[in-house]
Amino acid sequence: MSIRGKAYIVGAYEHPTRHAPDKSTPQLHAECALGALADAGLSLEDIDGYFCAGDAPGFGALSMADYMGLNLRHMDSTETGGSSYIVHVAHAAEAIAAGRCSIALITLAGRPRSEPPRRAPSSAASPEADFEIPYGGLTSNLYAMCAARHMYEFGTSSEQLAWIKVAASSHAQYNPNAMLPEVVTVEQVLASPMIATPLHRLDCCVVSDGGGALIVAAPEIARTLKRPLVRVLGAGEAPKGPRGGALDLTVSAAAWSGPQAFEAAGVAPADIKYASIYDSFTITVLMQIEDLGFCKKGEGGRFVADANLISGVGALPFNTDGGGLCNNHPANRGGITKVIEAVRQLRGEAHPKVQVANCDLALATGIGGALGTRHGSATLILEREG
Amino acid sequence: MDPPLKTPPTTRPIPAPLTNPETKRFWDAAREGRLMIGRCAACRRAHYYPRSICPFCFTDGASLEPASGLGTIYTLSITYRGTPEPYAIGYVELDEGPRILTNFTGAALESFKIGDRVKVVFMPTESGAPPAPMFAPAPD
Question: Among residues B134, B60, B57, which one has the least CA distance to residue B91?
Fold first, then answer.
């Protein structure tokens, strides 16, 4: 079953908060839902499908549906870390195409800045735990190991990675809600403290409270609403891990999710006008650019250092909200903000300084989990209709 | 703000493996200073961490066998922040093939490089649990 043209993103909302010490996580989910409903011109009783992931508190969809007062005939709690919400858009389109629901709500929210998550205890139930937890894998070093190997194999440099942060900051300066709106230079990135070699502090995304929500609807409903039409064209998803020791760290699962999405959409990388690329770290962006075919494997460093990611300057304007590197990474999960900025671009509602001209085809891609162990990649291609 | 280049090997407490019925023999061998890998009787490929069913061909009845304990560093990262003291995490490509997650010890952290030859050493973990395999520079 193809999802091409079977569903539309009719509502998108990014919570403006970046620090919410006086709110609860369920409250943030509900505020995001309210914002997306208002954006779409819909009300809560219109929702018949709900999607959430590991950030949803309590019993996930059951707790949140009850808290918000949702009456549902379809639920999906697919969990692939920060890329979950990109998967959810595709799964919502599939559910709509299959007649399982007609208007689906997706929410994400969390408060890691106000309440840093406690390290998960070692779990005997996780098959890999005993073989990984003793070694102190942190989000930072699990991505840094990929950067180190990429540098070794391809000569990628810290200066080249820094260009990704420079591009993100050049966009963030126009976002009044961005957590880090200052434009930074390559030299500033390299001078920031070493977190886990070879990644510096400014190679890492922000830690922010907040959230976002999306509403995906059937075509006949989307056409009755007042918002510009943003159509789901294609999607792909794939997991990748150490695979029993047959591990390589210079190719992400985007090498599998991307081709699925391009084939389903019937477009090629060169057709994409704007790309939201998950930027948990600079290396995450570099590997996805290569794996999606925007440049050859190993040439990502040169591609980004040629300023290709800067809107109005380069061939592949990315993360025009400032991305996770500068704007927002709510709940330590950046997938939903990737889709939201792609929707803004397709609607022509990005900041005028970063709006891509005639932006009729956009991509949102994400990597959740840990690139250095096991991760899930999701790629979504969206088109403006009319 | 690059860090100093002579950080001694870590003495951080190593979290204890909990073990389970499937992996008990691996950890019993670790207590005796032997690194074990999985080997499939059907496809003959080596794998790690060990499973009872081969992760490559999904044939039941994979067995444990001793590894040489020798390998080459595939990648590594020295963690300086978010930890009470720096440590070096990475993957070693065992001579038998599998690339395995580990830590590096026995020399200044910054002296380890991708491509270096290393040899397994077993480091004590918390609470008297089985020791964890880590890697130190291999003698020439």
Answer: B134
Q: Searching chain B, which residue's CA lies closest to the CA of residue A130?
A: B17
Model confidence pLDDT, tens digit, residues A81-97: 999 999 999 999 999 99
Tokens of A351: 């900041």
Please tell me whether residue B101 adopts helix, strand or coil conformation: strand
CB pairs under 8 A between A and B: 137
Question: B83 and A138: CB-CB below 8 Å?
Answer: yes
Mean pLDDT confidence for A283-293:
98
Rounded Cα–Cα distance for residues B135 and B122 (Å): 8
ipTM higher than threshold 0.90: yes
Distance from CA of A315 to the nearest CA of B (A): 32
Digit-coded pLDDT (tens) for A65-86:
999 999 999 999 999 999 999 9
Q: Where are the domains of chain B?
A: 21-137
CATH 2.40.50.840 fits B21-137, yes or no: yes
Q: How confident is the model at residue A386, as a pLDDT?
A: 82
Using a CB-CB cut-off of 8 Å, the residues of chain B touching A121 are: none
Question: Tokens in use for B63?
Answer: 């067995």
**Which amino acid makes up residue A28?**
L
Torsion sign (Cα): A135, A136, A142, A145: negative
The answer to whether the CB atoms of B98 and A244 lie below 8 A apart is: yes
**Cβ atoms within 10 Å, residue B33:** 12
Distance from CA of A120 to the nearest CA of B (A): 12
Taking the whole predicted model, whether its pTM rises above 0.95 is answered as: yes
Neighbours of B61 (CB within 10 A): 10
